[in-house]
Design goal:
The protein is mostly helical. It has one domain. The protein contains four helices and no strands. Helix 1 packs antiparallel against helix 2 and helix 1 crosses helix 3. The relative contact order is 0.16.
């Protein structure tokens, strides 16, 4: 309950602020290259999840780009925070239901 209601929302908020709002939103207002910044921020997001192994890095990179695209197209920080939280919560619930080790929440 603490993880779902406390930790995961904070992780989603912080990561979306860093990798989408700051790295894509604020930086693109200076450079005008939102899509290029989306690619770079997605790579950084993926590498930041390196403890999850190669597959985790690949999936996280793809998710990062999808979230960046959602941010660019919607212009909404809230949309990507909620989407990020839902992905993390579903991953946690699936792991728990299947009795798998907890994913690394970083």
């Amino acid at each position: 309950a603490v993880l779902l209601g406390g930790v995961l929302p904070v992780i989603a908020l912080v990561e979306e602020f860093l990798f989408r709002a700051a790295a894509v939103g604020a930086a693109s207002s200076l450079t005008g290259g939102a899509w290029a910044l989306a690619a770079v921020s997605s790579l950084a997001f993926a590498l930041g999840h390196g403890a999850q192994g190669r597959a985790g890095v690949a999936v996280t990179g793809a998710l990062g780009f999808v979230l960046a695209a959602g941010f660019i197209l919607s212009g909404s920080f809230l949309v990507v925070v909620v989407a990020h939280y839902v992905v993390n919560a579903l991953e946690f619930l699936v792991h728990e239901r299947l009795g798998l080790p907890d994913p690394i929440w970083s």
